[in-house]
């Protein structure tokens, strides 16, 4: 259906021929941040954005098993109804962030009428996609849900951080559109989400824990370390000191150090003398396809370093290592075999390309 973003064209082992709310929002956001700014691409991106909004409205109003928390859809736009880790409450937050970014660009271009008719209507109950997601996030962020990797049900730093971001950015848009009661409510909820982040700090180790209060899912993530916390900062995209606080920043830096140390031990591909940087997987205990480095996590660390203006040589090294393991014409799958360096799992993973682009084009965000 129009507006569908397949996670990968791979239809077996693994079958990724679906529209994941998370992947689709992140990929579409990369198109807004990069493609939309390039005159020769703007029209095609705009066509996708219009279709994406149409697909979003259909998904939000479909009879999905967990409503707005439903993680994935068939390519015809109908909700996937087999067994799955659901709900995944990062999805509506990421989708709101993406659509809010587009709405703000439209308002800047004088197209506020389009924003009001297509994206945000200031009504309750709402008929508009951004407000539907913001209402859901503002009322459900305390609920446990499955994590970014679809494996653990509980409270996750990643999910909370992108929920906070959706509410902060939602407050800004609601104010621009004169919906001040909603703006106040989103802000109040954003502050409460922010307070809830405190409990994720591991004060002894100086790191951030990925999950608290687990209620379901796999139980072998003993290190509690996960690149997901870094992805939360990148996908939340809030670089002011009230949100990306010095305390968070130093805990993220420390978490990355610990993760690098452990991936350096776990992945023989990192032993090579010529390596320019330690490539990373999702988390040390990962067993999915055997547990390997991923493109999107490797590029994410490069993006984080560039955006925070640190370890810039290593950031270049991470980009180079990722590209070294890519195929001809920069073809990229999901994972890189930990011993052979060959790619594996879902081929042409759409998110791998988005992660490359946002890392490649990233600008420093810190003064
Ligand atoms: C599929 C999920 O997408 C992946 O993240 C997970 O590791 C495997 N299922 C195993 O649970
Ligand atoms: C597995 C990943 O763990 C998950 O984050 C992603 O949404 C799906 N694959 C689809 O790419």
3D structure, described in words:
With 367 residues, this protein is mainly α. The protein has 12 helices and 9 strands. Strands 3-4-7 form a 3-stranded antiparallel β-sheet. The chain has a two-stranded antiparallel ribbon with strand order 1-2. The chain has a two-stranded antiparallel ribbon with strand order 5-6. A hairpin with a 4-residue loop joins strand 5 and strand 6. The model has no long low-confidence stretch (mean pLDDT 98). One 1-deoxynojirimycin binds next to loops. The site of one 1-deoxynojirimycin has 4 residues, from loops.
Helical proportion, percent range: 40-55%
Structural class, please?
mainly alpha
Bound molecules: 1-deoxynojirimycin
Rg, please? Answer: 19 Å
Distance between the termini: 43 Å
Proportion of beta-strand residues: 5-15%
- Pick out the low-confidence regions: none
How many helices?
A: 12
Could you give the topology of this structure?
Blueprint: E1 19-20, H1 21-33, H2 39-60, E2 72-73, H3 90-108, H4 112-119, H5 129-140, E3 145-146, E4 152-156, H6 157-176, H7 180-196, E5 201-202, E6 207-208, E7 211-217, H8 228-236, H9 246-266, H10 295-307, H11 312-325, E8 335-336, E9 343-344, H12 350-360
Antiparallel strand pairs: 1-2, 3-4, 4-7, 5-6, 8-9
Helix pairs in contact: 1-3, 1-12, 3-4, 3-5, 3-6, 5-6, 5-7, 6-7, 6-8, 8-10, 10-11, 10-12
The structure holds 1-deoxynojirimycin (2 copies).
